[in-house]
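seq:
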Amino acid sequence: MQHLLNQSAIERVAAEMFAGPRARVYFLTFVALALSAAAGLALASVWLGLTLLAEEIRRALGPQVQSLPRRERETATLALAIVESAIMTAAPAIAWYARADLGPPLAIAMLCVLLAHAAQNSNLGRRATLAACSPYAVLGLLFMLEGAAMDALWPAALAMAGAGYVFAAALHHAHQAKHQRMLDGEWVRQMNMAQAEPGAAAWEIDFANRRLSGAEKLAGLIGRAIDFDNALALDLHAAPRDRTLVRAMFAPGPSRNVAIEHDVAGADGIARRVRHRGFLRTAPDGAPLRFTCTTRLAADEALFGALLAEAERVLAEQARALSDLRGVAPAAKATDFKFASV
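struct:
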């Protein structure tokens, strides 16, 4: 029991450090501490302050960027990513040119960490991520030129090759995870195509990317517009008495199957009874990751159950009739045989 409690505590701490809302602050603080070992606390504090300021500016510009047309939005997002990489690149550059004894090793180590972090957390495609990380490539080239000037070209080149390998591996795994999420979204689309009847919808919530796949089919089923934010904030538009039940469906805990039924007040004023059957996948610390679900109108499902029960009753009666016929047939044959003998 103590082992399980310790493991749960470790998972919670890891989730808070690497995936929680303050994970970015923890990461920047770690980089600043590494920078302070090479360039002093003053320069590290200045870099950390400027980086946090840039983070706030980028967060403030986020809604305006999202409101732009698609092509302009992609260009603006890439530009902001390049600016962010340039600011982050300043940390290993300061450590390298601080001329401290631990400066170059710390600079190379920070460069590897920053590259892996950028690849793992990028929401862009592969090519856009490569373009966004171009400031790191420029810094790596400067490190190689500096190493050549100090007759250490091969060690510097090997170090940069190692950093490039770390970046490529992290980018590959991040792309695989994104591709898997895309396949999950395609599964939802195929399920909705297969369930062409209006009384069913397949959908999935991706908590990490704040995305709801199959939203249009679900909205048509419940009669209310729905997306990721209002699906959680409005508890799937459940009736007030059923909202606690819907919240429990997304509550942290172990991965589990879910089956609930609740009322939905449609925008047209018509109340609908829906039934959800799905599976909630959670992280080791219990935080929800993905929820895959199929929703049907409870009235349609009840009608289907009644029809199925009626079909089973008819089949049972037919089976009994056939059994009776099998019992009558041997008796009839025996009677015919007696008359033939006489």
